[in-house]
Specification:
The protein is of the alpha/beta class. The chain is built from 9 helices and 9 strands.
């Protein structure tokens, strides 16, 4: 009797359906994961775009506030000490305006004009920590840089010195047109090391006179060569009864003799700086600062005889 092989059994329908459901579930999971990644990417993209829009708006607000501050600063009815010069517009935006003059700074382009200017510069450099010899050398070297001749002062530097160090194009023998060029002068690197903020004490404009109403204690100490205690007493008197700077009760001195009396400047020192102290420097400086969040914009206006500058940062 011949036996025939039994036919192969077909998979059970329930097992086939189970496998199909498993494959479908995997596909769904993959699809959900891909969609989640896509959504997360879209959310991140939109978030970055939103952040950029917010930052752009704050930058725009800062610029707009800056122009408003400039308009206010240039209004003829606004004077130093006016409360409108400082405004908190919103919790995140504000502006402030400072009226001053170039007489709060050392006019480096005048150092070639007189020994008085160079002596003043030397005392300022010494207050910054430079030795007397280095301070005098730098003052003379700056004077040699801005004058038109090739004759070096006793401790100055002209073409022979700069040629010896490989700079045959130095000095320029003309006034500085960029304050950073002061660093090209022999000895200025030591000044930069001692006082990194030296740019805040110098100017390319003005007649070299120092405004006694506005100059800092450091500038006044260097100018009159008096003690820090005398300077502190004068600065307190200059604040007026409220003890706050740049308010309407700040005293306005009618003569330099009043200033001399308050500072107790010795006769010899007073004669040594004749022509430098002034009650008002002719070149005005207006600084406007606007803030919107972490963004800030600055505008400086310098106006006076021979100068009309607008510097935006």
């Amino acid at each position: 009797m011949t036996r025939h092989p039994s036919p192969a059994r077909a998979p059970r329908p329930s097992l086939r359906r189970s496998r199909q459901r498993g494959s479908s579930l995997l596909l769904v999971l993959w699809a959900v994961m891909l969609m989640s990644l896509a959504v997360l990417g879209l959310v991140d993209h939109l978030s970055r775009g939103l952040d950029e829009s917010v930052e752009a708006e704050k930058e725009f607000r800062a610029r707009l506030l800056l122009q408003s501050a400039r308009t206010l600063a240039e209004h003829p009815a606004i004077t130093r000490g006016d409360p409108l010069l400082r405004r908190q517009v919103t919790s995140a935006t504000s502006f402030e305006i400072k009226h001053t003059t170039e007489g709060t700074r050392l006019a480096v382009n005048t150092l070639g004009d007189s020994r008085t200017q160079r002596d003043f510069a030397q005392r300022l450099f010494e207050l910054w920590g430079m030795t007397s010899a280095d301070a005098r050398s730098l003052a003379d070297a700056i004077a040699d840089w801005v004058d038109a001749n090739d004759r070096p002062r006793r401790q100055g530097a002209e073409r022979d010195y700069y040629a010896s160090v490989g700079r045959r194009d130095f000095p320029y023998d003309r006034p500085f047109i960029d304050l950073n060029d002061v660093l090209l002068v022999r000895g200025a690197d030591e000044m930069d090391r001692r006082q990194p903020a030296w740019r805040d004490f110098m100017t390319l404009h003005g007649d070299g006179t120092i405004d006694v109403h506005l100059a800092s204690g450091t500038m006044l100490e260097a100018l009159f060569d008096v003690t820090p205690a005398e300077i502190s007493r004068f600065l307190r008197a200059r604040l007026g009864p409220d003890g706050v700077a740049e308010t309407r009760d700040d005293p306005v001195y009618s003569s330099l003799n009043q200033v001399r009396a308050l500072l107790d400047v010795p006769e010899l020192n007073w004669r040594a700086v004749q022509g430098l102290p002034t009650l008002q420097n002719p070149v005005r400086r207006t600084e406007c600062l606007a803030r919107a969040g972490r963004h800030q914009r600055r505008l400086t206006l310098i106006n006076g005889p021979g100068v009309n500058l607008v510097i935006e940062e």
